[in-house]
Sequence to fold (415 residues):
Amino acid sequence: MATVVIPLFAVKTLNATPAQVGFLVTCEFLGFLLLGLPAGAWIDRRRGERVLVFSSLGRTAVFGVVAALALAGNLTMPALYALMFAGSLCTVFLGISYQSVLPRIVDRQLLPGANSRVEFTLSLAEITGPAIAGFLLALATSSYVLGAAAVCFGIATVLLSRIRVTGAAAAPPARNTTLVRDVRDGIRYVLRVPMFRVMAIRSSTYNFCNIATTTMFLLLLASVLRLPSAYIGIIFSGAGAGATLGALSAVRLSRRFGVGPTVLGACVLAGIASIPLPFARSGGWLIVAGIGYGIASGCIVVSNILQLSVRQALCAPGMQARLSATMRFLVWGVIPLGASVAGLVANVIGVRQTLALAVAGELVSIVPLYFSPLRRVVEMPTEPESEPESEPAPEPPPGGAAADGARPEARQLSD
Fold:
């Protein structure tokens, strides 16, 4: 709901330009670029389920403030930038802790099914959220819809607080290295394993272009075609429907065609389905573009589920959060850049032309995947890649702190 309401509020209520919408999306993802790497190393030293709850609570508070300011008529673009940036910091810890907690409570061979269920739930929210948002925007002011989004975040926090990790998986592994070394190990781990390396290259290229596609498509519908909010909500709900079908079929497709071929095929089909988006006008072309957007969303969900499952299955147990953080930094860190570049380019050459360039970039991003070892993976890996050997931390001076101000022993005992 929030993914549609926030940009629509900026365009329709605050009269935001394409460049301002691009910068707004930049703020929503800037946290991954700034804090993604240290967050993963920090979460590896904590109980991930607790980080999950507190980060969700922070995001609830951020959207509560957004709704309150909108209700009072005091929400401006600078305030929206600041609040979306605060929300992105919470999302960093939420996303990384979620990906590190799941492999601790689910067997490796069951990861595709578990990730499918998570994606299915997200897809259902993507179906109902935009549709409900569009319907509510037609009935009430956007400030009340923003308030409803904050309430939804609060409910999610309560549900997350019910997660329990028990047994040996509950305690974070004891570490005798510094935070800086852990960050460096995470980067080395991604660069050393060919499968992780090619996933990072492909996904970062795709995300750079995809955020431009999504932002420009929304602007095309809202500013160029001037569609009512309810219609826009229906189109984005179609994307959620496609994502749901993708979540339901990912495991079956991988069993039928193999993991790697399914990922490659899904990415190719997603690129082809996005081609009609820049041609969206009224009538038939708009319907074709909406269907294409839904198909592309479904294919990307299939690809995401299988790539994430392979990554979690190959990752050494003590590296889950650092791998997740490094990948998120590389893959999501380009999103602010993509959104800003798209907004600036659209101000010069136009929204439709920028959308065409973004779709072309998505097609090009498939090339690294074709030449990768992932293409030849048929079944889910059962053996993790070994954890990189860390250099031991230097001995602290007698009676004082470590050279970089860290206290490894204290961290082993904390939490």
In short: The CA atoms of residues 225 and 281 lie 7 Å apart.
